[in-house]
Specification:
globular, 8-stranded mixed sheet, 18 helices, 22% strand, alpha+beta, 5-stranded mixed barrel, RNA-binding
RNA sequence: GGGGGCGUGGUGAAGUCUGGAGUUCACGCCGGCCUGUCAAGCCGGAGAUCGCGAGUUCAAAUCUCGUCGUCCCCGCCA
């Protein structure tokens, strides 16, 4: 088979200038229009659609063949490219001024009746789409997303290559580290009972590349985290991973902004304004109640604690006594019914608040609220002033521990104020993250990861709860696109961080000894970042979830509806790996097999 | 692990609240007509275990319980 025998031109590129030439095109039957006396076939290839015309008087055999064509048949067409007759130009088609007068048609491959139509007019059930993803990819939406993904990654590569970065591949069978997300494990046949882990990120290997003198590294890295799915989370995802020696935060930001700008230019045709604004973690939490603020809209948090210092209202005074805060948002004119307002209270509780106080400003400027009767006139007045509240506004107030109050209001703010879609793009760097966060059981965990440099090592040891690190996130329209940090580059500091995390010397040696050793051989100070490629492309393509920009994604339960992966394996395979299924697991598998 | 939405010919929806014959709409599919359409048009036709299983009832797509699948959210995601 030779492409020249199947086609000499691409469908989407045919123009008026080409009229008069003989062309051969190949592709798929998008539609067939049979007018009895004349037949039209819209032929689609990756570049677009061109109209093929079959005249039964000139080519009765071709007309007969065309009657047998069905949607998505793969065909090759030979013919004369000609200008369309007066009045039949299709302005909606790039090739709308021309058409091919067919002299020969070859069916390369027939198509069975389709499970769904190849167009964007209907929202087909996603499981169905994934089951026939190869057909789904022929739809304009998915074809556009694949193209966007390729262009984005190309923009990243070319920008970084021009900037002197080395692309290096790191292993995807690595050592498991119990910290952080759950690992995907891969059993070792040669060392039964031992397991590789799929990498959650190339973090430690890229740091070793800094030790190895690479200085500027990047990789389009596949990462794996065995955690529950979300619209912006798959267990398998792709990051742009970069790292630079002798770098600090400023160099990382300065290196990434051109990369992000090139991607935005490639996908949106826009020129981003750089540098992107910076905001500290503390400021983001106080103003927006989240570490990933969507700064496309205001509705900022208003703190009211001091206005209620002498309040009679028990819910508020109790919060103040226990060290909490009172804050709220002015959600504007929501026009919600009582049931709608109660729905917000439920949502607040779902988010972890003990309750939610709502107030609606009436036409006469009085505040309607279930708790209004517990508040003094001064307090009600203060509320109106702090919120700059006008008639019709809905005010939402939470009184709780500071972290709870802020996160609940931050989530409500997004629920109520976030614009649909992503026409506007607002990038933001969030900086000065804490080194640690306090887990529910009171233990410390690395807020970013334990290789992040604390701003001050002594401070980190003395007051770990409030210590600030040299970590930063990139946020776009309220989505965390990625994060990075200045790294620890000496084994002493690294050991002290592990110690504060409560990891014993023996554990440090057994789990990270190999890494600690590497830090002892002239490690340059270094810093880096990882950008979630699926996320940035999804937002730039204005898609509601990352599955739409991943060629072959999985469902929320980790299933691939096409291949039915994950699936059971044969006993001999398990034996070779030294793995025995627990009896109840085996039984469940057998029951399931029987049911089918 | 928890909460919520959804599941009806090949596809998308309406019908479910308030039980009464598998009813309806659009697309697709099959057949016919048609010489300029381009989401072609017109005529005709086929196609359903209302996700699955129990229960209530004279009667269940509809009510109840369970279960499976899926999506969204909380937890989780160093």
């Amino acid at each position: 088979m030779d492409e020249a025998t199947l086609r000499t031109a691409r469908a989407g590129g045919l123009r008026r200038d080409d009229v008069g030439t003989e062309v051969r095109v190949a592709g798929w039957v998008a539609t067939r229009r049979d007018h009895g006396g004349v037949l039209f076939v819209d032929l689609r290839d990756a570049t677009g659609i061109v109209q093929v015309v079959i005249n039964p008087e000139e080519h009765p055999d071709l007309a007969d063949l065309t009657h047998t064509l069905r949607d998505e048949f793969c065909i090759s067409v030979l013919g004369q490219l000609r200008a369309r007759p007066e009045g039949t130009v299709n302005p909606d088609l790039n090739t709308g001024e021309v058409e091919i007068g067919a002299t020969d048609i070859t069916v390369l491959s027939a198509a069975a009746p389709l499970p769904f139509q190849i167009d964007d007019r209907v929202d087909v059930d996603e499981v169905r789409r994934l089951e026939f993803r190869y057909l789904d990819l022929r739809r304009p939406r998915m074809a556009a997303n694949l193209l966007a993904r390729s262009r984005a990654i190309h923009a990243m590569r070319s920008t970084l290559a021009d900037d002197g970065f080395l692309e290096v591949e790191t292993p995807t069978l690595v050592k498991s580290t119990p910290e952080g997300a759950r690992d995907f494990l891969v059993p070792s046949r040669l060392r039964q009972g031992s397991f590789y882990a799929l990498p959650q990120s190339p973090q430690l290997f890229k740091q070793l590349l800094m030790v190895g003198g690479v200085e500027r590294y990047y990789q389009i890295a596949r990462c794996y985290r065995d955690e529950d799915f979300r619209s912006d989370r798959q267990v398998e995802f792709t990051q742009l991973d970069i790292e630079g020696a002798f770098w600090g935060q400023d160099q990382v930001l300065a290196a990434l902004e051109p990369v992000i700008s090139a991607v935005a230019k490639a996908l949106r045709g826009v020129d981003l304004e750089t540098p992107f604004p910076l905001m500290s973690y503390a400021e983001a939490m106080a103003r927006y109640g989240t570490d990933k603020p969507d700064i496309r809209f205001d509705m900022e948090l208003v703190e009211l604690t001091d206005a209620f210092s002498a309040t009679e209202f028990k819910a508020f005074s109790g919060t103040i006594d226990s060290g909490g805060i009172i804050a709220g948002i002015n959600a504007g004119a929501l026009g919600l019914s009582r049931a709608g307002l109660d729905g917000l209270v439920d949502r607040a509780k779902d988010l972890g608040a003990k309750g939610l106080v709502w107030m609606v400003v009436e036409e006469d400027e009085t505040l309607r609220s279930p708790v209004a009767k517990f508040l003094s006139a001064d307090e009600l007045q203060a509320i109106k002033e702090r919120f700059a509240a006008g008639a019709g506004d809905t005010l939402l107030i939470v009184a709780d521990a500071a972290a709870v109050t802020r996160s609940v209001l931050g989530a409500l703010r997004v629920d109520l104020g976030q614009p649909d879609g992503h026409e506007e793009l607002r990038f933001l760097w969030v900086t000065d993250f804490p080194v640690f966060e306090v887990a529910a059981d009171g233990r410390l965990a690395a807020a970013h990861h334990p290789f992040t440099a604390p701003a001050d090592v002594a401070e980190m040891e003395e007051s770990p709860q409030t210590a600030v690190s040299r970590a930063y996130d990139l946020v776009l329209n309220g989505t965390e696109l990625g994060s990075g940090s200045e790294r620890i580059h000496d084994s002493d500091t690294q050991g002290r961080v592990f110690k504060v995390l409560g990891i014993s010397d023996e554990e440090i040696e057994s789990r990270f000894g190999w890494f600690m050793r590497a830090l002892q051989y002239g490690t340059p100070p270094h810093a880096g970042f990882a950008v979630g490629i699926d996320r940035i492309i999804a937002i730039l393509q204005d898609e509601p979830n990352i599955r739409e920009v991943i060629p072959f994604p999985k469902t929320q339960t980790g299933l691939d509806p096409m291949t039915q992966s994950p699936g059971p394996v044969d006993d001999p395979q398990l034996q070779e790996l030294g793995i025995d299924l627990r009896p109840e697991v085996r039984r469940a598998l057998e029951d399931e097999a029987e049911a089918e």
